[in-house]
Each structure stands twice: as structure tokens, then as C-alpha cells.
Write a structure and sequence with these properties.
Helix content is 30%, strand content 19%. By secondary structure, it is α/β, with parallel strands linked by helices. It is globular and about 80 Å long.
């Protein structure tokens, strides 16, 4: 067995020593970013207070003893092993602005994140270390390199057998997972699939679809006429204490294919705000501008992200609309959700856009309108304290609670209003529409603006 322990002091050093007593043959590596692996942190206040005169008294077990007595591969001065991403964003299935929270949390946790970087060479360095050379000429020295180079279908045998291969190197199959040879079936990462939303052929290597494909292939072989309905790319990943999940089409894929769509952003809590532990998530919904059919969704946050994306995945598979999301009846109790679940809220917002109840623009749309001169003024309807902490360039501050009495201060022409997450902006939009003003609300508010500012 090979065991890698990150962090020394009490927990890590104790785990390493215990592991050696349990397995004399195990290869045990312990990494610690400080100079000492076994250190009495609890004694620091007494050292600082002068009661313990010598810092060396706080060293529980010297480094050499750990190496000799416990046969540990002890590595002080080790700090985590930089992430070089060739693309300009993390998690390419997501739209770039939705990855901003992930970038922030990774950097906050001490990860050196290089976006748009390229590894050109991995070389040997001194002391059994490796030197990684990047495209910009810089280098990083480390003890371990993990290379994630993507997934390609292992279809060489199928190609040599003359089976039909798709443009991305995957085996073409029909709904029953049968290849171009009627006696040969294929399933899993090696096959080409049809996207549920865009109806385009592609490669989506995910465990859930592979499981269903294998079952369908067996059914077909034995005469059961089941059929694979396509893959919508429902996926989830944890990045430290954040969760990111997606389903259906991304906005960039819809744009690339020229598929009409609208987008909306919201930032609800995972459960009732008055119940302890509520955490905000960022949710993006993509929908058809005519019928309101749900096309895709992405979410980043803490607990509850998986639940909402799973519900929206079923909505996509069931060809449901944003009007259906308004009426969705979901589990509710304060520890688990809100009476108006984030899925319902997404339905309210998107359906309101289609009905004309709340004219909205996304950050990208607002930027384009500002460049064109089609928006005359920006009005921040948050409180003065929120405005002072940060606001859109050129915005004026008219808090929504004061707006009715200050309508004379609202500039003429077309106006874009915004709040922190969208709700107060919606209320301000309704007030201004009643005053015969031409107004749009920024979808997702200032928080959505911040997501876009984080895109590198």
C-alpha cells in the first residue's frame, strides 16, 4: 500500500506513526508545508508568553527520527502540488461566468491556478523532484505531476473491423446500441451519443449513461425493444466546499449552434434563510424564448445544488417548460428548502420574462446595450451602504424603498436597474413600468455582474 498524508503536526504525524505500526511494508509519504512535521501547536501560546523558553521544546518528534524509526518518507517544506489549465476557464461544459466561484475558492485555499497555460515539458530536477516547463517560459518544481489530458474513445479495434466511426472518433450506434455491423453492439465511453437538447452527435463519457447503454444493449440482443434516448450531460463535481453541477445545453453551445434561447440568473439559498446553515447558490437557467422549454441549467454553491440540478435534469428529459417549473411541487421543510424552491423561483423569473411581466437582460446583453448606446442610465436600487461597497460603473443610487418618492430623480430614456440578486430590481422595474418608463432589470443583479467580472 502507498499512503500519502497531507499535513503533519498532531493529526498527520499520528496517522503516519500509527500506519507504520499497522503495516511495516507500506510506503508512507507525509507532506507538510512548514519546516517541522511533528509540532506541538497547543504549546505555542506558552512559548509566545515566555513560559516555554526554547522553540525546540515544541518539536514532538525530530524529522530524522520520523524517517529512521518510523521509515516515513517525510517531506517538510512541501506545498500544493499548482493547477495549469490549458483553457481560459475551469470545467469546459460550464459557461465561463459560472466557474468564477470555483476559481475564487481554489485560490483562497492556496492553489496557484494558471488559466490559459500550457505545459510544454516535464523534466527531472534535483533531489528526485520534477521540473514543469510552461509555455510562457516559467517553471514549477514539484514532487508529483498529475496529467489530465481528456478522454478519447478507444475505438481502434472497431475501426480496424470496419465499423462506422463518428467525427470525434467514437463508434456510431443506433438507439439499441447496435453498430453498423448488426451483430456487434457497443456501449460506454467508446460510443457516439446524441445530445438530448441540441440533437448533435458527440462524445459524453459519463457513468450513468454508460450504465443505461449497457442495459439497453443487452435488452436489444435478447429481443427487448428498448431504446437509448440520448445524453444530456448531467454532471457534478466538488471543489473544496463548493459543488458545481450542470445539465443540458450550455449557453456557449447554444450560441455556437445558432439555437434561439434566453438566459436567467438567480441566487437563492439552499433552504429557508431563518434556519441555521443556509448557503447561497448561483443558478443559471437556459430556456426556449418561444415555448419556454427548459434547455439547460448550471449551479454552483453548497448543499442543495445536486437536488436542484437533478430536478431540472428531469424537466429537460420530460420536455417541460419554465411554466411547469412554476407549478413544480417539491419537498419543503425549513432544513431542506423554501416554500418557493429555487426551481420554482427559476420558473417564476423565466415565465415572467416570457409574459413581459419583468423585462430582463443578462450581464452580457447589458454590456452590448451599453456599447450600442441603447441604455441611457444605470440605477442601483440597493441601500446606500451596499452601493458604497461596490456598484456598476456610472450607476446612480436610488434605493427601492425610496423610489416612489424620488421618481423625479430617475433619468429619462431607457433605464437598466439592478439590486444584489434580482428581487429588488424586479420590484423597481414594476414601479418604473407603472410610471411609463422604459426599463429592464439586470438578471441576477450585482452578484451576476461580479460573476462576469471574474471571468479571465
Amino acid at each position: 500500500m502507498k499512503l500519502v498524508i497531507v499535513g503533519g503536526v498532531a493529526g498527520g504525524a499520528s496517522a503516519a506513526a500509527r500506519a507504520r505500526r499497522l503495516d511495516e511494508k507500506a510506503e508512507i509519504v507525509i507532506l507538510e508545508r512548514g519546516p517541522d512535521l511533528s509540532f506541538a501547536n497547543c504549546g505555542l501560546p506558552y512559548y509566545l508568553g515566555g513560559e516555554i523558553q526554547q522553540r525546540t521544546k515544541l518539536l514532538v518528534t525530530p524529522l530524522e527520527r520520523l524517517r529512521v524509526r518510523y521509515k516515513l518518507d517525510a517531506r517538510p517544506g512541501s506545498e500544493g502540488i499548482t493547477l495549469v489549465e490549458r483553457n481560459r476557464q475551469l470545467l469546459m461544459p460550464f459557461d465561463s461566468e459560472m466557474t468564477t466561484p470555483l476559481v475564487k475558492v481554489m485560490r483562497a485555499k492556496g492553489v496557484e491556478l494558471i488559466l490559459g497555460g500550457k505545459v510544454v515539458a516535464i523534466e527531472s530536477a534535483n533531489d528526485d523532484l520534477l521540473r514543469v516547463r510552461l509555455g510562457d517560459g516559467s517553471t514549477r518544481t514539484c514532487g508529483l505531476v498529475l496529467a489530465g489530458i481528456g478522454v478519447e474513445p478507444e475505438s481502434h479495434l472497431a475501426s480496424e473491423c470496419g465499423l462506422e466511426i463518428g467525427a470525434r472518433g467514437a463508434i456510431r450506434v443506433d438507439g439499441g446500441m447496435r453498430t453498423s455491423d448488426p451483430d456487434i453492439y457497443a456501449a460506454g465511453d467508446v460510443v457516439e451519443v446524441i445530445d438530448t437538447v441540441t440533437r448533435q452527435a458527440g462524445v459524453v463519457p459519463l457513468g450513468g449513461p454508460a450504465n443505461r447503454q449497457g442495459r439497453i444493449a443487452a435488452d436489444h440482443i435478447f429481443g427487448k425493444k428498448t431504446s437509448y434516448r440520448g445524453t444530456q450531460g448531467t454532471a457534478i463535481v466538488r471543489v473544496f466546499d463548493l459543488t458545481a453541477a450542470c445539465t443540458g445545453a450550455s449557453e456557449k453551445s447554444l450560441k455556437k449552434l445558432g439555437i434561439p434561447h434566453r438566459a436567467a440568473y438567480l441566487h437563492p439559498a439552499n433552504h429557508a434563510g431563518y434556519y441555521p446553515g443556509a448557503r447561497q447558490m448561483s443558478l443559471k437557467i437556459l430556456f426556449d424564448p418561444d415555448q419556454g422549454k427548459v434547455l439547460g441549467a448550471q449551479a454552483v454553491g453548497g448543499e442543495g445544488v445536486d437536488k436542484r440540478i437533478d430536478v431540472l435534469a428531469m424537466a429537460i428529459q420530460g420536455k417541460m417548460t419554465v411554466y411547469d417549473l412554476e407549478e413544480a411541487e417539491l419537498c419543503y421543510a425549513p432544513p431542506y428548502g423554501s416554500a418557493k424552491d429555487p426551481v420554482n423561483m427559476a420558473g417564476f423569473i423565466c415565465a415572467g420574462i416570457l409574459r413581459g411581466d419583468q423585462p430582463q437582460v443578462t450581464v452580457a446583453e447589458l454590456n452590448a446595450l451599453l456599447v450600442q448606446g441603447a441604455i441611457g442610465s444605470l440605477v442601483d436600487v440597493r441601500g446606500a451602504d451596499e452601493f458604497e461597497r461596490g456598484h456598476l460603473p456610472g450607476a446612480i443610487n436610488l434605493p427601492v424603498d425610496e423610489l416612489r418618492g424620488r421618481l423625479s430623480e430617475v433619468p429619462s430614456g431607457r433605464i437598466a436597474v439592478y439590486c444584489q440578486v434580482g428581487m429588488r430590481g424586479y420590484l423597481a422595474t414594476r414601479i418604473l413600468m407603472a410610471d411609463n418608463r422604459e426599463v429592464v432589470n439586470l438578471s441576477g443583479g450585482y452578484h451576476a455582474w461580479e460573476l462576469f467580472q471574474g471571468v479571465e
